[in-house]
Every structure is written in C-alpha cells, then in structure tokens.
Amino acid sequence: MRGRKIKNMEEFATVSGISRPTVSKYFNDPESVRATTRARIEAALDKYDYRPNVFAMNQNRRLTKIVGIVVPYLADPFFGEIARNVEQSCIAEGLSPILFSSHGDPAYEAAILDSLRGLKPAGVLLAPLGRSSDRSVVERFCDEVPTVLFDSYIDDIGEDFVGSNNDQSIGMIVEYLCRTGEPPCLFEMETPSNPNSNKRRAAYVKAMESHGHAVNVVKAPGLGWDFEEIGCREGGRAIAEGRFATNTILCSNDRLAIGLLAAAYQRGLRVGRGSGHALRIAGHDDHPFARYTCPPLTTVSQDYTAISKKSVAALLERIEGGEEAGERRSILVEGKLVMRDSA
Amino acid sequence: MRGRKIKNMEEFATVSGISRPTVSKYFNDPESVRATTRARIEAALDKYDYRPNVFAMNQNRRLTKIVGIVVPYLADPFFGEIARNVEQSCIAEGLSPILFSSHGDPAYEAAILDSLRGLKPAGVLLAPLGRSSDRSVVERFCDEVPTVLFDSYIDDIGEDFVGSNNDQSIGMIVEYLCRTGEPPCLFEMETPSNPNSNKRRAAYVKAMESHGHAVNVVKAPGLGWDFEEIGCREGGRAIAEGRFATNTILCSNDRLAIGLLAAAYQRGLRVGRGSGHALRIAGHDDHPFARYTCPPLTTVSQDYTAISKKSVAALLERIEGGEEAGERRSILVEGKLVMRDSA
DNA sequence: ACAAAAACTTTACGCGCGGAAACTTTTTGT
DNA sequence: ACAAAAAGTTTCCGCGCGTAAAGTTTTTGT
Question: Which fold has domain B166-301?
Fold first, then answer.
C-alpha cells in the first residue's frame, strides 16, 4: 500500500477500475466475483491503503459477519484456550469474532447478550454460566439469533449443543480408578455453577453402581468461580473430618482438584498411586495447569480443538441453513484418560 | 419495555416527546441534557424497547466510545484478571470495551491493531507482546490512536505506560531472601518475550550487588508462552546439572516458578524454608494460582486493581486531553511481598 | 458461431444517525 | 423582572455503504 489513502469505496472503485457495486460484492465475498475482477481488485488493494468502513458496511446488512463468543469466565485458562481455538476457527471461515466474558455474573451475561443483539451477529457461540444464567434472557436471545451452546448446557435452549460426553469420560475414569485401587469418592460443589457437574455426578453414580461399589459424594459449600479456593478449604475440611470413605477422590473438575491437592499437601498427605501414598486424586478437563501440579494430575482430557471446531461447524450450518430450524442436536466429544501421577 | 418495538431514533423521539437531535445528545452523553428532559427520555426508554443502532451511531462520529483492550495471551489467568478489571473500569466510565488477545503471535497482534483502526476507537489499552512485537506497527498505531501501554513496555512507544515497579519489587524480595537464607539465584528465560524480564534481571543484579553477593543468573532456552513447560523442563535440567549456585531461586515470574516447583517435586526435592528443605523458590506477580502450588508460592503481588484503574485513568486523561500530547508518563505500581511457604 | 447465462456497469435510493445553523423556549443570575 | 445564557426545536445535509433495477458486456456451452 504505497499509494495515497483512499477515503471510501467509491474512490477505491475508481482507482481499481471496477464499479463500486462490484467492489462491494467483492468485500462481502471475494469468491462471488470473477477471477479476473478479483485479481484487479486485489492488485489495487495491494497498491492503495483502503479498508471498507466497518460501521457503514454493517449498517444496512440484515446480517453481519460478526460472531459473538461468550464465555463465563475468562480468567479460567480453560476458557482462554477454548476462546482462542474458536476465534481462529471463525477467522478461517471469514467471520469476525468478538470475545466476551460474563465474569461469572448472570447480570453481566444478560447485558452481553443484550448488547450483542445490537450488533446483528450472524451467530453466537455461547458457553453460558449455566445454573445461574437468567434462563428467560438466554432463551429469548436464542430465539432471535442463531446460537450454539458449548461446554455448558441449559435444557431446551439454543439450537445445538457441543460439549464433552460426561457419561463416557466419567465412566472411563471411574473404571480406571476402581481397577487400580480403592473405588473413588466424588468431590464436587454443593451448588455447582456449571451444569456439567450434575451430569458428572449422575455418571459417577451410574458407573459406581455398575461396578457394584457404594456411592460416596462429598459436597463442598461455596459460591462463585473461585474453585481452587473452595476445593482447598472445603476439601481440606472434608479430609480432616474423615468424610471421604476411601483413599481415592475424583473431583468434578480440575480446578477443584488443584485446590484439593493443595489441601492434601498442607496436611502432609502424600498423593499418588502405590505404597507410601495416602491419597489418590483425579480430576476432569485436563486443565492447562494440570500437568504442573504436585504431583501432576491424573484427569480426563477434553479435546479443546475438537469442541471448538465442532461448535463453529455447527454454527455455520445453522447460519447457512437459515430459518428451517431442524432438530436440536447434541454433539458430544469423547474424553481421553490422561494418566499422570496423582491417581 | 412493554410497548411496541421502536425502529429508529426518529420514532423514539416522537413517542418520548423530545426532538431527535436532543435525544441524540442524550445517548451521546446523558449528562448533557437537562434533568427534566433526561427524565422524560428515560421514562420513554423504560416504556419502549429501543436502542440506538450501534453502526449508524459510530459511522459519523469522529470518535467513538469504543476502547480496545489488547492482551498478549488470554489463556494466562493473569491477563484474564487484568482484562476483567480494565473492562469494568471502562464500563463504569461509559465506554464500550472490546477485548482482544494476541495469542502470543506478533502477526496476530498486528492484525488486531490494524482492524482496531477501523473501529475508530476513542483509545486503546495495549499490553504488547513486547520483544516480539512488530515495533513499527505498534509505533504507527500509537501515533494514530491514544494508547496506554500496560504491563509490558516498549521503549518510546505509546503515550503512557502503567506497570509494576520492578526495581522496587525485585529489590524487596531479594532483600527478603538474602536476609532469611542463602542469597537467590535468578531463573529466567533466555529470550524472554516479556520485557519486564530484562528490567527484573537488572533489578536483581543491582540488588545483589548492593548486598555484596555474587550474581547467579540461570537462563532457560525456549520460545513462546508456555512458561510452565519451559520452567519445568529447563529448570529441572539446571537443577540436575547443579547450575544453581545457592539453594534459593528467584524466578522471573510465577509461571516459571510453577514449572520449577513441578520439576523440584519430580526430583523429590522438598521446597520451603527451614531445615528439612532442599530448595527455596520464589516468584513474581502473585499469579492467581500461586496460592495453590505445593508448597504455596512466595512471590511479589502486583496490584491488579491498581494497574487496571491507573491504566484506564491515564487513558481517559489522554482522550480528554486531546492532541496536546504532553509528557510521556511512566506510572509504576509498587509490589507487595507475599510470604507463603516456598521461600 | 450463436444463444443463454453469468458477470459487470450505471443509476438511484435509503439506512439511521451525527452534526451544523438558525430560531424559539426555558432557566439562570442579579 | 429583565437580559443573558443555556437548552431545546426545526430543518437540512451528508456519512459510506448495501442493494435493487435495468441495461451492457463477457463468458460459457454446444
């Protein structure tokens, strides 16, 4: 772009030798113009410094190329990773992703969805807060905008859901733990913000019963998204009070497990498998930090890339499919057992 | 908003009984209209469902209320926290923050800045990648848009900088470590992406010399943002090769320390102060996970809230100050010693 | 080579709002 | 109460682009 600044599309059309409506078509979809035309436009684009005005572009379009990505809590590296993957998938599809975090606050989530409507997004990828979400707000939003839920589920809302197959993943790790030592207790939040917790508890109960073991669920009171804090404080208390029936604890997610590991360490309990260890602790999610805990955390990995790719793919289908809503699909991604040293 | 949908400002002006230009003024700044007028508009706002069209609003405004927040790596909870704080400060000021992550990639950072120009933002809060940033791109951007750099510094770029006072914070923790045991070695990346590293090394050297101790810097090769991985692998190797001259290691940041703690654990080295411990490890930043490492990490806290608040305040001054650039300011926030068990 | 199809050009309009100018009404200070 | 200041009204234009319609040129298939 050595040439002078171009102030609008009219001017750019002139210097590129193409009519403005065709240039406009090009910017909406480069594939929609003839190859020779495209080449001439791109030559001009290379020579002059011009970009269509974002606001003017989107003003009259019924639908923009904007895609909202909403996650419940960005300070959780899990969502940071997911967001990154989703963002890049969108860009690869020629969409313009915009990232939002609800910061754990339902009111904030509602505000995001509200302002998102003003952006006339082509679609939205929403990982809702879950249990604490304002159901009616989310529902109304999904009625207006093509939305794919991911990670976290809200019954009967959204057009598709992409998440992990908790039945499969919990079944797998419970089987592993039963096979290699004492059957696991489940450690979870008393009032989990994340609906996956409920599915995981159900999966745990089912798996334990199928193996003929007694169920032992320990619930940690506490609200909010400070899972490590809750896991450490309440997990430590549960250990002290002897509320874990066996020496093996399966945590509902890795962040709780990280807190619990800290609690065990503080009490001088050696965590790991084999003799000389007092406790086995396992998690779920393969949190980015799980491999650096002491000891490294045995867990079930969620395939971030697969979840991201499938979410974006599902959204694209919905967008292109238009109004003919079709069936609501539930796309589940299988987890893999990640054996480290903690269990 | 029980009433029918309002399709544009003209219509809303009619139902609220106020002229459109005045309504327009209201939406630009509610304080700019008389209290009685404001009340009437807000009554109508309450009664009808209307929001100004975002795209039309920003099309003709010389400057929007948009503020870009750019961080280098969102999967790092440190930036997640900062982003949250900054975002909320902006909203409190009536601005519309939009969040971006460079995902550790200079090309991506450049692309963000490029597309940000199209949004005509009132200002930008930029935590640059640092050393790997494309200097000329960042420089050009800062010339066009009021920009406050935070966390990470690039010489002579941007209008203000807000970050931690590495001289003070490193000086403090070096003093602490020297006073309570063997003088610390410094563990850092060989080619740090973050320019804070360089400042911290200089501060370390200065502090050690002032205490009359020999300097011992251990550099970990490795690129990218996978600090824990690098800290664990290279830190473990350095331990094995006996490259740490004393039993005390000060890490350039907490993420390296987290990796190093994992390495020490894997080798069966007990970390902590007092007898029975092989190693003392300290970090810097008070990373959200630092309190849940095993043992909990002694570190220097950065005041997230203060950095966020001061960054936003500095940006607002720049925006309101207009073109009269004034002096480039460097606003440094002091760290606090956070004594936990690792050192 | 010829007709049909596809792509492009010309012309024209409108989106929803910002903002300026000239005028009228309300508020403020003494 | 009166003039000055502040706030609101009316009228108008333009921003940069999407998009539709009608006409023209180029490409495609046989």
Answer: Rossmann fold (3.40.50)
